[in-house]
Design a protein that fits this description.
Blueprint lengths: L2 H14 L3 E5 L2 H12 L6 E5 L2 E2 H9 L3 E5 L10 H7 L4 E7 L8 H11 L2 E5 L7 E2 L2 E2 L6 E5 L12 E5 L2 H14 L5 H17 L5 H13 L26 H12 L1 H21 L12 E2 L4 E5 L3 H11 L11 E2 L16 H9 E5 L6 H11 L7
Helix pairs in contact: 1-9, 2-3, 2-6, 10-13
Bound molecules: pyridoxal-5'-phosphate.
Pyridoxal-5'-phosphate binds next to α2, β3 and α3.
Length: 385
């Protein structure tokens, strides 16, 4: 392992005062490592919110386990605790607690259910770096947590993932798994990722994001760039080169991002508060959460809008950075839901959110002007109360 990767893992661990961290090529690879090291296998059930990315479900399917979906709370988009209780069976091996958009899950309730039933909790912190629940940082509650550093995440290394754990046995199992099975990314993949990162840093700003995303998706299909997901990842069968290590370039970029993490978090908090104020001034609903329990660090600011498709199309033309996740319960819309054991109607609140929610940029390149333009833009559409 390179010295850079070791340093990145060590510095990441320090931020959380945790015992071990392991970085990977992508977040989904990190989740796979956790599940495999926990011994998840055919016949097991893994609980997830029905408002997620299909790449989160793939590792469950790769291991032959069954994903079980739980509907969400409409305010925080996180797993509904009462419904979660109903889904526990003797086969439940793990609960994936996804801290959606940055809102922490109700960790006391989840840990309580898990402990009573001897189930492991894995925190999905891909959208929540630095959020706190009852004063404690998310990622430190469950048996393990994982993070993503893909383009849209709290910070980006182009692609990238990290496991965080305080569990010594799990850490040993992950190390032994990596020793035996982890592959290195090819030189071509690493060079392409490095070039993409340089282009991203030079060219991607809120006004150019929509255009850049269109070009990026086109080039990914043509195989010219390293996409976040390849075509074979829309099927629940694992590609031979899936279980891949992080490159030193990702570690180098991650270390740079960690140096700026406090400013990044402070900026996200300030921007989210600004959106709350600007949206409230126009009579739009704002974020609803119990501030005595949660200190969310949002990755994007979710807003419900009646004409979502039209708003997204017009935003792209107008150079407004309007995001859209999740577009279906197992994002993106191309996902063959039946192959992932999801039937429409299983999670009505999640499906409603998919139809209504757009998200607004909070990242370090978005500023007050971005927020004002974005709110002016969405105010031309109909709010959902
Ligand atoms: C909530 C969530 N978890 C996990 C992932 C997977 O992360 P990665 O793209 O790094 O594999 C995603 C997708 O980007 C996501 O949105």
């Amino acid at each position: 392992m390179s010295e850079l990767i070791e340093r990145y893992q060590r510095e990441f661990t320090d931020i959380f005062a945790a015992k071990s961290a392991y970085c990977f090529w992508k977040g989904r690879v990190a989740l796979y490592a956790i599940l495999k090291a926990m011994g998840v296998r055919a016949g097991d059930e893994v609980i997830l919110p029905g408002y997620t990315c299909v790449m989160d479900v793939n590792p469950v399917k790769y291991l032959g386990a069954r994903p079980v979906y739980v509907d969400i709370e409409p305010a925080t988009f996180n797993i509904n605790i009462n419904l979660l209780k109903e889904k526990i069976t003797p086969s439940t091996k793990a609960i994936i607690a996804q801290h959606t958009y940055g809102y922490p899950c109700d960790m006391d309730a989840i840990m309580n259910i898990a402990d009573k039933n001897n189930i492991s909790v894995i925190e999905d912190c891909c959208l929540a770096f630095g959020s706190k629940y009852k004063g404690r940082i998310v990622g430190t509650f469950g048996k393990a947590a994982y993070f993503s550093f893909q383009w849209n995440k709290p910070y980006t290394t182009g692609l990238g993932g990290m496991v965080l754990t305080n569990d010594s046995e799990l850490a040993e199992n992950i190390e032994s798994l990596c020793d035996k099975q982890l592959r290195k990314p090819s030189k071509k993949e690493v060079l392409m990722l490095a070039a993409q990162l340089a282009i991203y840093r030079a060219l991607i700003y809120p006004r150019t994001t929509a255009l850049a995303q269109m070009v990026f998706r086109y080039l990914t299909k043509k195989g010219v760039v390293v996409g976040s997901s390849s075509t074979c990842e829309f099927e629940p069968t694992m590609a031979p080169d899936f279980f891949k290590a992080a490159s030193s370039i990702q570690a180098f970029s991650g270390l740079r991002q960690l140096k700026k993490i406090e400013q990044n978090i402070a900026h996200r908090r300030k921007m989210a508060e600004l959106y709350d104020r600007l949206l409230a001034e126009k009579g739009w609903p704002v974020r609803q959460y119990d501030a005595t329990i949660m200190e969310p660090v949002m990755v994007r600011c979710p807003v419900r809008i009646a004409e979502k498709d039209r708003a997204l199309a017009e935003a792209a033309k107008a150079g407004i950075e309007l995001g859209s996740w999740f577009e279906c319960p197992l994002h993106p819309v191309e996902t063959p839901l039946a192959a992932y054991d999801y039937q429409i109607g299983m999670c009505p609140e999640a499906e409603k959110a998919c139809d209504e929610v757009v998200n607004l940029p909070l990242h370090p390149r978005a500023n007050e002007k971005t927020a004002r333009r974005t709110v002016e833009f969405i105010n031309r559409f109909t709010k959902v109360i």
